[in-house]
Amino acid sequence: MSMTPAVFFLLLAVAFIATELLIMQFSIFWFFIIGLGALDAALVAWLFPSLSWTSVTGLFVVFSVLSAVLLLPMLKRWQAKPSELAGHDAIGQEVEVLEVVSSLSKGKVLWSGTEWIARTENGEADFQAGDMATIRKVEGITLFVGR
């Protein structure tokens, strides 16, 4: 059985979108955008099965560019609002220190019922187990705490 353009571009769309979700780099979105282009091309190839591979590939390129042109301005506006990004609701919240936290070594804190890796900013006093601290900054999965 030979692969049709519709099936090929559907599989390509699934691969690109799944890769975007697995990478979890929400500042990039290129795999998602290309995946949308592939999904659109697969839909057109399914609706019009007589289209050649070349035609569907051209549509894939056009749909990917259109997706980028339409989505990137919206994504840039969304990224320009750091207060609305995930994790920023943690800033100002109190945490319980479970392991010693300092600027030189990572420790652990308890926030929202979950253990988190934590550090202090340079020059900030160390925290001992049992101390209470306040979240000052979030970088990835590390909480930066202070008094």
UniProtKB/TrEMBL annotation:
PANTHER family: INNER MEMBRANE PROTEIN YBBJ
Classification via Gene3D superfamilies: Nucleic acid-binding proteins (2.40.50.140)
Keyword list, A-Z: Membrane, Transmembrane, Transmembrane helix
InterPro entries found in the cross-reference section: Membrane_assoc_protease, NA-bd_OB-fold, NfeD-like_C
Membrane topology annotation: Multi-pass membrane protein
UniProt-recorded name of the protein: NfeD-like C-terminal domain-containing protein
Locations listed in the record: Membrane
Pfam families assigned to the protein according to its UniProt record, in alphabetical order: NfeD
Transmembrane segments: 6-23, 28-48, 54-75
GO cellular component: plasma membrane
Major subcellular location class: membrane
Positions of the NfeD-like C-terminal domain: 89-145
Organism domain of life: Bacteria
